Amino acid sequence: MDEAIDESSGETSKPEIITFNNMTKGAVDVVDEMASAYSTARISKRWRVVVFFSLLNVATINSRILLLSVKEPPLKYKNRRHFLKDLALQLITSHAADREMEVLRHEESLRRNFADPGPSAKTQNVSCKKRCYLCARVKDRKTNSCCSKCYKNICKEHNHALCANCIE
């Protein structure tokens, strides 16, 4: 370890390494200030996520600096907020297009399924909760299940694919 004293530091007589560190640490403060102005971070209890957001902040700052260092930088990126917005939109564009196609395929399959309900047309009313018709009213058991023959609502206690009356 070099313990040479820096004569230019005056009365404090600090080692040269400390003086050099103090002279060059301004960049860290500038990066912290830029990251706090428009941060990509979100509150999280998981340390990995916090580290990821910190890395993302530094990466976006560095990428903007690189973009602005070209001969003719785009004027719209003078503001970091605009740069972050455009960067985010460019990063999600391909995923959004894939997701849109997936949704359209899903909607098409739903349209096909509901266009011709077929023999189970009576089961459309199954989604609403109703009281089991076999239980006493005092129990007031609500259920979505129904008898596959008469389509009346039945609870789990009475559910055997067919209700007790249809089995008989």
TrEMBL record:
Sequence ranges assigned to domain PiggyBac transposable element-derived protein in this UniProt record: 8-63
The species this protein was found in: Oedothorax gibbosus
InterPro entries reported in the protein's UniProt record: PGBD
Top-level lineage group: Eukaryota
Protein's name according to its UniProt entry: PiggyBac transposable element-derived protein domain-containing protein
